[in-house]
Amino acid sequence: xxxxxxxxxxxxxxxxxxxxxxxxxxxxxxxxxxxxxxxxxxxxxxxxxxxxxxxxxxxxxxxxxxxxxxxxxxxxxxxxxxxxxxxxxxxxxxxxxxxxxxxxxxxxxxxxxxxxxxxxxxxxxxxxxxxxxxxxxxxxxxxxxxxxxxxxxxxxxxxxxxxxxxxxxxxxxxxxxxxxxxxxxxxxxxxxxxxxxxxxxxxxxxxxxxxxxxxxxxxxxxxxxx
Length: 226
Known about the structure:
Elements: H1 2-95, H2 99-125, H3 136-146, H4 150-178, H5 182-225
Helix pairs in contact: 1-2, 1-3, 1-4, 2-5, 4-5
């Protein structure tokens, strides 16, 4: 009887230990599963955060690149136009008939040389590349003007200067108002008054030429009417 009781006690103890071990194992497994789920959620959150950060960085970089490209295009166009006008101005002393046009050409060369130097310095500071020579389009314009002499040169020179300075002013005004780089906006704003002065000067030369031609043609017209 005692032996049977002892066996029962032993079996009961073993069963209880087994149940306790099973419960502890189950609890441990639950904890491991919970930690795993937490880590997975944390990893997923971090991954989502990284994806979002990368997307924001790429968007910012794309915006900066686009802005930088616009500023660089402005600098390249301004430098090209300025270089062409300097070359055209240097043609006037030997080809122009009008002393007024020669005087304007000297100021044109002086002012645009300074402006081109300012553009080049700014581009170098921003590590932007500027054209080192005229492209075929602008070279063709210079060569066409270089083939003229006297009044024909004067007439074409004035026409080109009016057209190009109107275009330059629009270019600089756009950059001064909407340029992404604050320095580029300031540079455009600083050069604009000189361009406007050039346009006023050459427009006056053009208007005077029209008046002279009108006066010359008036007696001829009167004679024909008589």
